[in-house]
Structures are given as C-alpha cells and as structure tokens.
Amino acid sequence: MNKTLISKIISSAISIFVLSVFFFLPQVSKAAVLLPGNIASCGELASAGTYTLTQNISGGSDTCLLISSNNVVIQGGAFTISGTGTSSPAIDGRAYTSSTLTTGAHGYTNLVINDLSISGYTTGIDLSGNSDETASGVNNGYGGDGGDVAIYYSFIGSVISNGGTSSSQNFGGLGGNISFTDTDLNISNSNIQALGGTGTTGRNTNGGLDLNYSGTLNITNTILSELSFLNNNATTYNNYPGGSIPIVPGNISSCGTLIGSGEYTLTQNLVSTSTCFTIGSNGITINGNGYSITAPTSTVAFFANASTYSNFTLASTTVNVFTNLI
C-alpha cells in the first residue's frame, strides 16, 4: 500500500472521529459562554448577573441556556425560547464537569426569570441536585440540593428541582423552592417537581411551591410532586401530598379538591370517572351555573365527598348517574 493511500485513509478516519465527537457530545460541551448583558443566542450563563434577550432564540434539540452560576437573572423581554420536542430542559441548572453531571453536586440556585415564554420543550427548567450512587461525590456521599427559582410573568411549562439521591447517607439532597407570579397565572400542562432526594433511611425535605396572582389561575392538567408547602395566594397547605393542584374559590372547569371557603362556579359541563369533588373546607358552595356533571356509569359512588366538613351548598347544577350525591 503506497504512502498516499495510507495518508488518505488516516485523514478519513480522523475526519470521521471529529464528526462523531461534534455530533454526539452533549450540548453542555459546546455552549458558547455568554456574558451578562444583552444576549441573542443560546449559550452558557456562567456568571452571576442579568442576561436580557433581544430576540426569539431556538435550542433545536438541545438545551438552550446552561446555567453554571448562582444568582442569574434572565430578562425575557417577551421573547420565546423554542425547541423541537426534546427531553432536554430548555434551561438546565444542574451542575456539570466536562459535559458530565457532577456526582452529588447541588443545582444552581437563586435563578430569576422575568417575561419569558418557553415552547417545544418537555421540561422548561431543571435545577435538580445530582445523585451520588458511588459515595465519592463532591458532597461526601450526599445527593445535591435542588436550586430555588422565581418566575415572573412568564410561561415556562414544567419545572423540576429535585434533590439528588444517595446510596451511602441517610438522606439525599433537599428539594428546591419554586415560585410563580403573574396577573393571570398559567401553569397548565405542567409537571412541577420539588421532591427531596432519597437515601438509605428515607426521603429528605421536599421543596415548596408558591403561587401568586391577582387575576385567574389556569391549572388544567397540572401535576405536582409531594411538597413541603403549597402557597396559593393567601392560602397555605402544609405538606401537600402531590397530585392534582387543589382548586380555590372562583371559576372552575374541572373536578378536583376544593380547598377554601367560598363559591366555586362551573364554566362548562363535566364528566367524572371517580368522585368529582373532594370537599376540603367548611362553607363551600358549588354554583353549577346551569351546567351538568355526569358519571359514565352508576358504579361511581359520590358526586362529592365532604368527609367531616359542613355547610356545603350545591346550586343550579344537574348531577347525573352517580350512585350518591354526597
């Protein structure tokens, strides 16, 4: 084999290797480092400070903004971060070293997001602490804590800030705290997780969720993890067990747990495959507003289960098929 042919073969092999590295390394290894100030592209936010979007940006199938510092503020400017349906989070605040999750590291914390929309991503933000299954991580075998995030006037979608797990310590990391604030708050179709990490004994403290709004709350298809607290405006629910977010007085368009004295007004007909309403306070009124609530079969026992609560009122509602009313 002549030297020219050998040289071509070696050159081709090197090219294939370089292309493989380019295409298969995670996004975190090739994100451009962005400085605080105006930004017009995806990249790594590696310093504390304020980053202001000047246009819509797209992360494609990768994470768009990699957070690698505490105390980062993202001013969205009413722009959108879009993706292509990837399972990677749009904004990733987990700790990395050389594109690999750092064993046992805390998620970056005190993230603030204002006036931003995220679309096309399964997860909007992930600030989870990383797990330590080898007992050799940066926190002496403990899982890392989830970071805290405050989200203002934004639609982010799902937010995750779980504590990392541990294989050698009693508990994993702490769950993070998540806060949403808007005039009309929309957290529909969101999966919000703030679980404490598990260890050899059990689960560490879960994080909490704080909802602040002066207008309406859209919670359609929203699912919560266990929480150490759930604040819904002026109402606090300690140690919330997770599941569907409870419904507070006002207009309602779904079955669920009604917590808080006052009037709940239906805005559409409902079909329920189990008990439609769980009553969680005294002095609750359901105003059907002329709409109907129907069970698909007569095996569904209760339209509403009031347990030990009293002063329940049902008005202007047609209830169909349920075996028992309450």
Task: Give the helices and strands, then pairings.
Blueprint: H1 3-24, E1 33-34, E2 37-39, E3 43-45, E4 49-53, E5 57-60, E6 65-67, E7 72-86, E8 91-92, E9 96-97, E10 100-101, E11 111-121, E12 125-126, E13 149-152, E14 159-160, E15 178-182, E16 185-186, E17 191-193, E18 208-213, E19 217-218, E20 223-224, E21 229-232, E22 235-238, E23 243-244, E24 250-252, E25 256-258, E26 262-266, E27 270-271, E28 277-279, E29 284-287, E30 292-294, E31 304-305, E32 313-315, E33 318-320
Parallel strand pairs: 1-3, 2-4, 3-6, 4-7, 5-7, 6-8, 7-11, 8-12, 11-13, 12-14, 13-15, 14-17, 15-18, 16-19, 17-20, 18-21, 24-26, 25-28, 26-29, 27-30, 28-31, 29-32, 30-33
Antiparallel strand pairs: 9-10, 20-23, 21-22
Condensed summary:
The chain has 326 residues and is mainly beta.
> What's the multimeric state?
single chain
- Largest sheet report: 10 strands, mixed
Note poorly predicted spans: 1-29
- Count of discrete alpha- or pi-helical segments spanning 4 or more residues: 1
Average pLDDT for all residues: 88
Whole-Å distance between the termini? 89 Å
* Computed structural class: mainly beta
- For the CA atoms, what is the radius of gyration? 24 Å
- C-alpha geometry: globular
Give the fraction of residues assigned to helices: under 10%
Number of strands: 33
Q: Beta-strand percentage?
A: 35-45%
